[in-house]
Amino acid sequence: MTVAPTLVLGIESSCDETAAAVVADGRRVLSNVVASQIELHAASGGVVPELASRAHVEKIAIVIRQALTDAGLSISEINAFAVTATPGLIGALLVGVEAAKGLALATGTPLVAVHHVRGHLYSIFLEDKDGRPLRICLTPSPAGAPPAPDTEDFDYPFIGLAVSGGHSSLALVEAPETMRLLGETRDDAAGEAYDKVAKLMGLGYPGGPIVDRLAAEGDPNRYDLPRPMLHSGDFDFSFSGLKTAVRLLVEREKPPAADETGNARFLRDLCASFQAAAIDVLLTKARKAARAHGARGLAIVGG
Predict the structure, then answer these.
(1) Model pTM score
(2) Tens digits of per-residue pLDDT, 208-249?
(3) Please, are residues 193 and 168 in contact by the beta-carbon 8 Å criterion?
(4) What is the DSSP string of 76-137?
């Protein structure tokens, strides 16, 4: 006897992306639709909460409808709705929550509120339509080859490192609903530091991808930037001091715009040095947490 899969429609609107996805049996992703707001916020160099909320209102129904279409399902076939309820921008969150509540009320379908960082920590178990893991293996691929899907077994307990523009935290994940926070940022999140550093260097928005691209072409050893709280004895992070160090370097050493060759080299090397410092802190603390808690693996996820 074939058992019908449990189908969940997930809705996300915590910041600057309106998203919806259909997941079967908690793992198999049948559809995933995302409406980005990058162009909307580029002029201001960062997310404007009021604009983000209005854009969610415009896109939420379209995104949900497309997720159902891509999965080949109707709303009546969904067994449960899940929605990001926290953390995030309050106005942006409200759009997704109210949409999910309306769908649940209209259809009589159960609704589950989700802490979206916990969702990120669970995401390593997701699979594509054919049952292949969506996570990428940390083992380096041959030169020039794209990252390969991780086909090795991955199980609890593991250390989860959640890193994004709004959150940087370490958690001990013992089961899908058993996650213990070990440490988090005391000021800027890592992704926020990336964007602010990019703004200091005049690189545009969103700054993270630009810094990452330039870093790949630069010398990470040119500037000896600080590794804040690397040896603090706990699992917390701080990136504001690293950001300040970059600002002082820009003010002191940036070549004039007319010196295009020197300016390009300066930006590449500073991006590489900044990224090396940030990643050093993140991975060093993650490894220490894994050893301290006897974790079987390390998962690096968005947040």
Answers:
(1) 0.89
(2) 999 999 999 999 999 999 999 999 999 999 999 999 999 999
(3) no
(4) GG--EEEEEEESS-HHHHHHHHHHHHHHHHHHT--EEEEEHHHHHHHGGG-B-TTS-B-SB-
CA distance 38 to 226: 30
Quote the CA–CA distance of 116 and 130 in Å, as a whole number: 25
C-alpha–C-alpha distance, residues 176 and 265, integer Å? 46
Q: Are 172 and 293 in contact (CB under 8 A)?
A: yes
DSSP 24-67: ETTTEEEEEEEEE-HHHHHTTTS--HHHHHHHHHHHHHHHHHHH
If you ran DSSP here, which 8-state letter would residue 75 be given?
G
Residues 6+ apart with CB under 8 A from 299: 121, 124, 135, 154, 158, 159, 160, 161, 173
Rounded Cα–Cα distance for residues 134 and 156 (Å): 17
The residues, ordered by sequence, that sit 6+ positions from 139 with a Cβ below 8 Å of its Cβ are: 148
pLDDT digits (tens, 9 = 90+) for 31-70: 999 999 999 998 888 899 999 999 999 999 999 999 999 9
Q: Quote the distance between the C-alpha of residue 57 and its chain's center.
A: 22
Q: How many Cβ atoms from other residues are within 10 Å of residue 188's Cβ? A: 22
Residue 87 preceded by cis peptide, ω within 30: yes
- Cα distance between residue 201 and residue 216, in whole Å: 16
HSE of 276, CA atoms in CB hemisphere, 13 A: 19
